[in-house]
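Reminder to self: keep the SMILES exactly as supplied, no canonicalising. Ligand is zinc ion.
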Amino acid sequence: MGPIYFREIFKEKIWGGQNLGRLLGKKLPAGKKIGESWELSDFGQDLSVVAEGEFAGVDLPSLLAEHSRQITGCEGVSQFGLLFKFLDAVETLSVQVHPRKHEAWYILEARPGAKLYLGLKEGVDRRHFEAAVAEGTVEQCLAEIEPQPGQCYYLPAGLTHALGADLVVAEIQTSEQITYRVYDWQRGRPIQVRLSLETINFQARAGQTSPPAQQPGQLQRLVDSDYFSIERGVWPSDATIEIAAGQMQVWMVLEGKAHCRYQDTTVQFERGQTVLLPACWGGEIQIDEQMCVLITKPGVRLEA
Ligand SMILES: [Zn+2]
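Structure tokens returned for the bound complex:
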């Protein structure tokens, strides 16, 4: 088994747009507001299907059921555990909180002044927040950040969060279903006040890494959590990267191009593609065009 990539699943959203085509080369349906491209998922009904090669047409759960050890390095893993997406927020999303889901956002593009809403301002406790919900002043409780492209934010479970308008991000998260809408900017969609209040961790803060400009040939650590780690790799044209077998990793290609040989086929890594490198595979990846990639590995809480 060699590196595998999957067909993306596009999601139309009222807050979405067409930026994933321009930025990542996605072939989006014309005229549709695409908010999300699900890159790798075994979540609910949204099952990623292998795009090419010997497993073309097979979905991720079936692949895991047959080849758990080869893909993950362990027998009997029935759930992939992680979900990978690209998001295009043309408009602000509702403010949410999850009881168990941990997420990371890597900023691909941010218009000047675009905002992330991460956590609550200093001093906002449950009592304050409940009063703000009742008075319709939740906005004043939310901590705001103006993110820059290349930054990465880690959102632990229990943290209130929303993407503001004019942001494009890569999102890596644990696949957990439950989401409560805390606040919808007075747009009228239902909110789950009581469940949100029970879920919000009023002390939670986002983790942030702002890696300096990267010299080609380096790896930089963006996230290191119990659930997953993320590194950013930048390599110049003509570099060769050695991958040792032993641990599954997922590459989200943000810029550039590469390829590798597996038996008698060539696997391409292109901008906007998400590629699964199974644990059983080791080999060489040849860079064809300077490449920037997010590399995610499962953490200790997911392995096993
Ligand atoms: Zn979320």
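Points to follow up:
The mean pLDDT is 94.
DSSP finds four helices and 22 strands in the chain.
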